[in-house]
Design goal:
This protein is of the alpha/beta class. The chain contains 14 helices and 16 strands. A hairpin with a 5-residue loop joins strand 15 and strand 16. It is globular.
Amino acid sequence: MLRVDAGACPSPCRGISRRSFVQLGVAGVASLGLPELTRLKEASALSGRAGKDTRVILIWLDGGPSHLDLYDMKPHAPAEYRGMWRPARTNVPGMEITELLPRQARVADKFSIIRSISHNDGEHFSAAHRMLTGRPGPNAGDRPSRYPSIGSIATRVTGPRRPSLPPYVSVPQASSIGQRPGYFGAHYLGQAYDPFETEGDPNKKEFAVRNLDLAPGLSIDRIDDRRSLLRNLDTLRRTGDAKGQFDAMDTFEQKAYELVTGAEVRRAFDLSSESEALRDRYGRNTWGQSTLLARRLAEAGVTFTTVLMAGWDHHWNLKGGMEEYLPKLDSAVATLFEDLASKGLLEKVCVVIFGEFSRTPRMNDGSGQGTPGRDHWGNSMSVVMGGGGVKGGVVVGSTDPKGEAPVDRPLTPQDFHATLYQVLGVDPYVQFPNHAGRPVPAIDDGEAIKELF
């Protein structure tokens, strides 16, 4: 077994194997199942949705952004509902978004808005689990995940779009409501399908991705010698390996080897090769530079990349929060769509933006903590999608005049997941055994949102 030392594990330590492919153990290898992976790819081919070269960038607005203050404004509602900002026209006739997103308004033809998703869950942990796994389960008193994330399932089937790259990456962290990898994790699929976390702050000059360097005193030649020796020692045991576990181990170790030695991997994570002007357009902040890094990873061949933008839990001081966050979100998202289009990547890369839920349509008085805000609301929320074969300039569904519930084309998180699986060419009903050995489909129900294709 090859083991490349990735350095000390911060406390609390879950093991570096949860965060990267660099430090390897037999426990992680045993969950890989290369023959099963091959069968899953064949199953997707039989479903008629295989062979795609699409990728996803998921921008996670942790904490829950208000739909009425971003993408589903209600200017004719009573003041305590409509909020403090006016709607602005976009470059798509009839589509309006908040005036605090002027750059996105100019590229609205590149994305669509789903305004009628609902799960009726106003609790952070359970709502995040619904949006990221498609199923209920955890709550504030019992937080562990019950199912694998959509990113883990998708990349279990597809792998990376180019060899030598990790298929699933989180920038800078895979974090849902403060848990890592939380509901972005692979659960019963095994740690090999957790996202690789870059960690650090891409906006800092000294930013470098952890675990891409060799341990002190360990050279490429020494790794090659060690790998050759292990292959020779394993020859006899491989003869009786009916389950193919050694083949799986080879694949897992090859991923680690390529991660620390591959020039293509290092280039993908290197933001310094981007122009200063482009970096300025994305925004010289953690969100902007994380989004630029996500574009580089998708371009290089990473199948599923998540970007963490946390802090949307605005029970009070909504005005200050929105005026701080929305310009950053605006620069990052608008530039991402422009950048993908200019590089000819918009048909390959699907951008999705959402949080675990929305905020109450009726504003509160500040909850005794400050100026007015909005509380938790899972009865109606908006999701933005564009690229990767998804149409731009489309509005799907609507909510009532106060934004309290869908009235046209009500949709569920499962419908949204089915849509992303269609983008990636994954059969949404492909099954995986859980810890009890029972086969569980990727989604229980739901259909791809046809208006988007």
